[in-house]
Structures are given as structure tokens and as C-alpha cells.
Design a protein that fits this description.
Layout (H helix, E strand, L loop, with lengths): L2 H7 L3 E4 L2 H10 L3 E6 L8 H15 L3 E6 L21 H15 L13 E4 L1 H4 L4 H7 L6 H6 L1 H7 L7 H4 L1 H16 L3 E5 L3 H15 L4 E5 L21
Parallel strand pairs: 2-3, 2-5, 3-4, 5-6
Antiparallel strand pairs: 1-6
Helix pairs in contact: 1-3, 10-11
Amino acid sequence: MNAYEVLKERGFIEQLTHEDEIKELFEKGGVTFYIGIDPTADSLHVGHFLTVMAMAHMQRCGNRPICLMGGGTGMIGDPSGKADMRKMMTVETIDHNVACIKNQLSHFIKFDEENGGAIIANNADWLRNLNYIEFLRDVGVHFSVNRMLAADCFKIRMEKEAGLSFLEFNYMIMQGYDFYELNRRYDCVLQMGGNDQWSNIIAGVELIRRKTGKPAYGMTFKLLTNSEGVKMGKTVSGAVWL
């Protein structure tokens, strides 16, 4: 069985951007893909474990994972599925959390890069020192505000009294840029993540296709929720830490 068949059989897959093309890609094997983790705590939680398991299955089927640490995006915070703005963290706290999460991932993923193992990357390497004007001209021009506001991750927050901060509004663009950078640096062609990341993943897929003309794909997994149907994460009471 190839990785697509394994994930499908085990009930991981929720949505795909280009199902037929992704099936064909997995039949060939050797796919470089990535999953992003924002370091908003010093430990992974049980919700992360679903995506880590999917990453492990992908690696065992001959594909190469990139574990992207959000040392840059973590300074903003993903508004997806959140009723309120995330707590702002210092650079020191973020870097400490990144180091802890790297250590945890090594229990599940093989990181011997010289022998085709997984890659650890950190988007702080390209996000923290961006020139804002150049970024707007090079990347922002490819994003439609109309389409961004229609995304569920933004619509829910817009309906709240506190609204959506301009800081958080930039998150989707930054995550899309992450995919573009990983495609350019490592020939990464697939982003995977929880179903709450669907809009962010599409942003990256479309950015790569518009800027390079090359194919890029996205896949989301079903979310692990509590008894009230709320996503189990770091900032929800009763979080189960790995």
C-alpha cells in the first residue's frame, strides 16, 4: 500500500486539493511534504499526535517529512478555530518551546537527514527578517482580501465583539509563504495539517502555483475533539500533553 491508501484506510483524510493528482503522486512515492507546528507551548498535545502519526506513516511508505517549527508565525498566532487572540510570547519563550518540541518529535520521526530522514526547519529563518514593503509587493499581491475574509477562520472571529486584529489577519499570508519557501528550498510539494488549516493550506498551494507555475497540493486530517465537539489543543482547558 502507498501512503494515500494507508491514510485513507485508517480514516485520517478529511479534504484534498487535487485528489486524482495526489493519488498519482503517492503511487510514484518519494514525496517531500510538510506539517507545521506553532510553538505556543513547550510540549505537543494529543491533538498533534494525529498529525505526527500521519507523518510517521508517510515516512514509512518512503516519503520525506519536513517538520516546520513556527518560530516566526508563533510571534503572531494562528486565529483558526480561536474565539480570542492568542497570548503574545517573547522570542526567548518561542525558541525554548521549539527546542522542546524538536526533542519530542524525535521519538516518532527519524531525523537522519544525510540518509533521507526528516528535515527540521524553522520559519523564523525567513520570516523574522522580512522587508515588509518587499514582502507586500512580492507575496501580498497574490492574495485577495475578499477571499480571505470568506475563510471560516476569519469569518468566525469577525462575528465576535473583539473582532480580528490586523496582526492575525497576516497569518494566512505568512503560512502560504512558508509553503512557498519550503517548495523553493526543498522541493516540498504537499502540505498536510488539521482540517482547521484548510484555508491556510489552500493559500500556500495557490501562491506556489501562481508564482512558479509548478504543482503543489494540500491535504487535511480530521480533528480530535472533546465531548463538546471543540478541537483539543493547547489553549483549551483539559489539554492532554504528550
